[in-house]
Amino acid sequence: MSNHPDVKNDGPTADTVETTDSKVFSDEHQAHGTVKLLQGGSVVLIPTPSPDPKDPLNLPAWHKYLFILIVGAYSATSVLVTSGLGAVFPSVLKEYPPEDATRATDLLTYPTLFMGIGNLFAMPLCVTLGRRPIFLTSLTLLAASGLWCAFSGSLSSHIAGRNIYSLAAGQSEALAPLIVEEIFFLHERSSKLSWYVGVQTVGTAVMFVATAYIVPAWGVKWWYLISTFINVAILVLAFFFVVETKFDRPRDADKGAVHLKFDEHGNVNANGDTEMVVKVLTRENHVLQPEVFGPRTWRHDIKIFHFKKPDWSQTVTFYKEAAQSLCLLSVVWMLLLNGAFLGIYVYESSTFATILMSPPYLFKFNWLGYVQLVQILDCVLLVPLLGYGSDMLVRALSRWRHGTFQPEYRLIVLSLPVMCAIISCVLFGQAGADPHRWHWMAIVAPYNLGFFSFMGANLIGITYLVDSFPSKAGPLLLVLCAGRGFISFGLSYSTVPLINLTGYNGAMNIFAIISGVLGAMAFPVYLFGARVRMWATKKVWPEIAQ
């Protein structure tokens, strides 16, 4: 330790505990992801932060919340432009000849596909080049393709511009939550990710309302230009404040206890005879050592590339690990659950406007934006119930289990999104099939309840997978986020045929049954999830146990 240490005292406060006790919690027979979260009445910071001021975990609290705001705003504009055109599609069709009406639907269907493709290409590069250059490149591409769409001279050019925009917007699904989770600890991960989802949702909902007025009055050109101006502003903020979050840590930092070996001179040496275990607890102040590792400076923060010699073999490894994750039943189940809940939202978002604008409701066109605005209420429920609620629950269960944390604790709060999804399907199907017997709220409320269910499944899915295999967060998020995007793209083509075949009631009843079955599968995953993780540690990723 330095004689003149810097003290990080703006939260979370911590105490570095050094011990030579060999009986630490983690051992080779323990399922990966099962860690000692509580010790002596304090929370163990996982992953273990280093004394390096440049460690993203050591960022001050204000900077972390600014991170959430910037990344959430980027995600909001990404979602708005890729999915917001459907609400004003009749106004868009007026700008093209009638014979192009059928092909114009590509403006709505292709973005979901290209967002998934964008994830497939960008996420491996995040591992090789770092998060910051990919994030800034995505924002730059959003601005450039937004201008392309605004000044496109034909439908083909418009479709191409939106496809390029969607490639860049895809990082809002996997890279954005990866960046957020890398600057927070396990015990606060769910609540902070819920704030990120909240910022994204509120921003999108507000801009949806604005879209309903901007496009009919000024045209789609100005809609793209306004979105581009916002993206440029976000790019400027991101350049100065979204620092690199990729940070090399000891592998056992994800277990909350870093093992260090020292030689006879007191220097860190992997072949040393003396071992020390370092834990950091939320009790006193965590001491930083800028005189040893160098201070965090503005020059360091605004640097785009922090890794001079990229290891391109990591991209191949990334794809390999993503494919291997599909061997884990818990990962496949979470992917199917997210895909099903996204499918519910896709069906309802594709049909609610048609139902509300038809008799007996006869909603005016600009009223539809206010239906989207109700999603803010979803955030008011999401953040405390599934964000802070999940973190509080896992701490309580860990305390009950003598300080031991299991990632499966995250699945308990999944019961709320599952119930909401089933209720949403039943009510929406009934009201859509016979609107004369139901109030318009039977369409609006289930639609937003379905969105809440998807947000909840998304939040719980991300935290559960990252908590289970922290070192594989990138590949797992790619599988979850890109996978459900491809599922959504496929479902978008079956909306009209399924409704024509079974009616609103039949289609939504099918989704209700699927939601119930997938939700019930949470019980065996909760009971046997640790065994799946242990099997993965031995057979799929044995290197994470070393």
From TrEMBL:
Q: InterPro entries this protein is in? A: MFS, MFS_dom, MFS_trans_sf
* Residues passing through the membrane, by range: 65-88, 108-127, 193-216, 222-243, 326-347, 367-388, 409-432, 438-464, 476-496, 508-529
Q: Which residues form the Major facilitator superfamily (MFS) profile domain?
A: 64-533
Keywords for the protein's UniProt record, in alphabetical order = Membrane, Transmembrane, Transmembrane helix
One Pfam family per UniProt: MFS_1
Which Gene3D superfamilies does this one have? MFS general substrate transporter like domains
Q: Which GO terms describe its molecular function?
A: transmembrane transporter activity
The cellular component terms of Gene Ontology attached to this UniProt record, alphabetical and capped at eight, are: plasma membrane
- Cellular compartment(s): Membrane
UniProt membrane topology term: Multi-pass membrane protein
Q: What is this protein called?
A: Major facilitator superfamily transporter
> Could you tell me which species this protein originates from?
Colletotrichum zoysiae
**Lineage in the entry?**
Eukaryota, Fungi, Dikarya, Ascomycota, Pezizomycotina
